[in-house]
Design goal:
Layout: H1 2-20, H2 28-34, H3 38-47, H4 49-67, H5 69-90, E1 93-95, E2 113-115, H6 118-138, H7 144-159, H8 168-207, H9 226-236, H10 241-269, H11 276-289, H12 293-308, H13 310-317
Helix pairs in contact: 1-3, 1-4, 3-4, 3-5, 3-8, 4-5, 5-6, 6-8, 6-10, 8-10, 9-10, 10-12
């Protein structure tokens, strides 16, 4: 217990300092802010969710005492709460009977475990991305018009006074940017949580502290009802006001989740392909420089796999010659 408390305090101090660095305005503080949840996630995966809880409470208390609740509350919503809950879900497991053992056979000393599915963890990450985005937008106003005008004023301040005297073309681009900003916030928040969670799992696995087996990420799939939720959220995008912003945020988060499953499909369908590593490297490189179009393509592939089960047909029709990675 003493070790858990010490690790929790260290992780909480590291996260609090990284989160508070944004106040300095330095460029490096953006990178530190992006990886604020990493120490808490490492503590949660390596020493249990209690470590993430203690570290998160300590960090939030310190930030609130020094800088105020306007810094402490965003830290809890965007960093501490996801770190604790995702670590808790990742370590959820139950023993399952060995299908290969016959009745009356001697049970194994360590029964196989069924761990919480990665696809459901991905769905929770989408939920946290939506929560943090909507919480941020609600700090700008309580209705869609107020939030839009606040964002417009912020964009005009960033772009400079010359935009005020510009033509309609730039103003139309600003209007388009205001429409996609909620979706951009949601995908950015999801990317941050996914990257931090993957890095935390890798760090704890390499240190031997990870309490679960490493999952087969190629088999990641979302629950069947996710597609219905995506359809409903997309319909709300045309309603207007705050409800439309919520619909855009949920739609973007779920599309990002399907894009992850799309890459899982790509990893599966390229098994046994010569130069597989080069093809995958090119795909990820294109994702960075495509401006989001490849992510939409991967989301379409993930949705198509959910409907037509491409991976199941591929694996049943032609077993992959390479071991799972």
């Amino acid at each position: 217990m003493t070790m858990i408390v010490l690790v929790a305090i260290a992780a909480g101090c590291a996260s609090a300092l990284m989160f508070a660095s944004i106040i300095s305005g330095a460029l490096i503080s953006i990178v530190l802010l992006y990886f604020t949840a990493l120490p808490l996630m490492v503590a949660g995966l390596g020493w249990g969710p209690l470590a993430a809880t203690i570290g998160g409470i300590g960090a939030a208390t310190g930030l609130g005492a020094i800088f105020g609740l306007h810094i402490s509350i965003p830290f809890v919503v965007m960093m501490a709460l996801p770190a604790w809950w995702l670590a808790h879900l990742a370590l959820l497991g139950r023993p399952v009977a060995d299908a290969g053992s016959s009745e009356g056979a001697t049970p194994s000393a360590q029964p196989s475990m069924e761990w919480y599915p990665v696809g459901r963890i991905l769905l929770w990450i989408a939920a946290f991305g939506t929560l943090s985005t909507m919480a941020t937008l609600l700090t700008l106003g309580t209705d869609g018009a107020t939030i839009t005008e606040t964002l417009r004023a912020a964009l005009l301040r960033v772009l400079g006074p010359r935009v005020e005297a510009s033509g309609d073309e730039i103003k139309q681009r600003i209007d388009v940017a205001l429409i996609i900003l909620p979706a951009a916030f949601a995908t950015s928040a999801m990317t941050m949580l996914m990257l931090n969670f993957w890095l935390a799992a890798r760090i704890t696995a390499m240190s031997g502290r990870l309490r679960r087996s490493w999952p087969d990420l190629k088999s990641t799939e979302l629950p069947p009802m996710t597609l219905a939720a995506l359809s409903a959220a997309f319909a709300f995008c045309f309603s207007g006001g705050l409800l439309a912003m919520l619909g855009q945020t949920v739609t973007a988060a779920l599309l990002m989740a399907y894009a992850v499953t799309g890459f899982a499909v790509l990893h599966t369908l390229t098994l046994g392909l010569k130069g597989r590593g080069l093809w995958l490297a090119c795909s990820y490189t294109m994702m960075v420089f495509s401006g989001g179009w490849l992510i939409l393509a991967m989301a379409a592939l993930g949705i198509a796999d959910a409907l037509f089960k491409f991976r199941q047909r591929f694996l049943h029709g032609r077993p992959p010659p390479l071991p799972a990675s």
